Each structure stands twice: as structure tokens, then as C-alpha cells.
Amino acid sequence: MHAFKKILITAAIAVLSGGVLAYGEPPATGWTLHESYSNVKIYKKNNVNTYVQVVDIGAGAKIELVQVYGGTVNHYGKILKAYKRDTVPTWWTNLGKPTSVVNGTFFFANYSPAPLSYGIRSNYSLVGLGDDGTNTGIRRQMEFFTGSMNGANDYSYSASRLQNGPARDIIVGDPVTQDRSKTSALGRTYLCTLYPQSPSRLLLVLSAKSYTQAQANSDLSAWKCNSGSGVMLDGSGSSQLKTSKIEMMGNSHNGLPDNRTVPQVLVIKNN
Fold first, then answer.
1. Other CB atoms within 10 Å distance of the CB of residue 46
2. Beta strands in the chain (DSSP E)
3. Phi and psi, residue 31, nearest 5°
């Protein structure tokens, strides 16, 4: 057999046997499959409360951004839209017990209902560009596409893409290198893309109960997140994950409760 033909046949076998999903397979050691669905695999890191979800959007898994309007608050003379707060387990129950729910973007923790610090686009509708004037550093956004472009991509923050881009849903957070109490062992929630195409069909969601940023970034590297990929969502006591078998509540700091209520969540559905 000619070498060129042999290469083509080998490549075809890899795809037919699930070679695409090999991008979402766990590191060689240290992780155990905890929950398995056709389009979502949830792994637990051995001996710690850290979980990774591999979400195959390209195969039909769905990501939804959910927030419930709760009126307005007066923030030092500025009237801001605010959203109702619940713990992630309560969100999960109220949303019909989907495959999983994780916490979302940053918010004004001193209010309930609470304004969102960063912008959100949900089902093609702009929820807001973000109201927190204290968070003016570099931002990063994860965009979710449906239809013929099923998948996810992350970009440097762009208000114009948030308002007028092609993505159905967009969540804005920080780059994974941003200093958010980086040496403290706190709850951490990260997103990154895995499959090297645009948009990526595979999304990784990392939820850790008690991690430094270095530990979280080490895990992202071990899972082979795409270079430059990654969005850090709210952490500390906001970092929460709920499935039918998992209830993880992140460690908090500065005297805030571990089971903090949050105003915005990511809902992950197997199909």
C-alpha cells in the first residue's frame, strides 16, 4: 500500500472511531469519569473537589445563559438593572434539573437583586454591557453559536461583537491570567475551548472548590485547552456546580458565605 493512501485510511479510521472527541479526553492520570452522557462527560480530579465538563456542542449539547430581571438598584446615583439571586443548586432545581448548572459572570455582591459587572448576550438579546466601573481591566468573552456553526469561540472583549456579532449567547469574564486573589485557595470557574477549529465544537468547563489560579491553569494546560483560550468567571463562594450527582460549593474569602447566591448562570444540556 502506498504511504499516502495508508495515511488517509488511518485518518479516516481515527475520525470514525471518535477521533474528534479525543481532543476532550482526560489527561493520562489523575481524573475519573464521574457522569457520562452522549454529549457531555463530567470528570472528577482524584482526591479533590475539582470537576471538568467536556461539552460537545458540535454534536448537539446546548449552553444557555440564564438571568431573571429583578428591578433596579441605585448605585451611587446611577440606576442599574438588577437580577434575582439564588444558589446554583436552587437554579438547577428551578430550571428543571438539566445536565448541569454552573455560576456565571461577575456581579455586584452587595446587592440583591444584583447588577452584573460585565456584559451578557442571551438568545441574541443584549442583557447589558456591564455596569461595574471598577472592573476596567482586560476582559475576555466566550461566544456560543448555534445552527450550522454549532460551537464556541473566545475573543478579547469587544462591545461591538457583544451588541452586533453573530453569536447567539456571549458571556464576558476575565482572561485566565488576570490576578483574582491568585495565590488563595478559593472557588474557581473557568471556560476554554478544546477542538482546534473555529468555532470549536468542544467546550471545557472547570469548577474547583479550593484552587489557586496556578492550580487551575495547570489543569487547563493538562487538558490541552487551545493556546490563548480561556475565560475566568466569578470565583470564590460564587463558584458552584450542580448536577444530579454533584453539589460543589466553592470556598469563599473576605468573610463572604461559601454558598453565595448568584444572579446569572450557565445551563448545560446534553441535547
1. 10
2. 31-36, 40-45, 50-56, 62-66, 69-75, 78-83, 100-103, 120-122, 125-128, 140-145, 151-156, 169-173, 186-193, 202-211, 231-232, 240-242, 247-249, 265-269
3. -130, 145
Please write the tens of the pLDDT for every residue from 79-121. 999 999 999 999 999 999 999 999 999 999 999 999 999 999 9
Instruction: Identify residue 106 by its one-letter amino acid code.
Output: F
The helix or strand, by DSSP H or E, that contains position 91, with its residue range, turns out to be helix 88-94
The one-letter amino acid code at 7 reads I
Give the pTM: 0.90
CA trace torsion 106, 110, 113, 118 (10° rounding):
-20
Kindly report, residue by residue over 166-213, the tens digit of the pLDDT: 999 999 999 998 899 999 999 999 999 998 788 999 999 999 999 999
Cα-Cα-Cα-Cα torsion 171, 172, 175, 181, nearest 10 degrees, comes to -110
Given a contact cutoff of 8 angstroms between Cβ atoms, the answer to whether 264 and 105 are in contact is: yes
**Which amino acid, one-letter code, is at 63?**
I
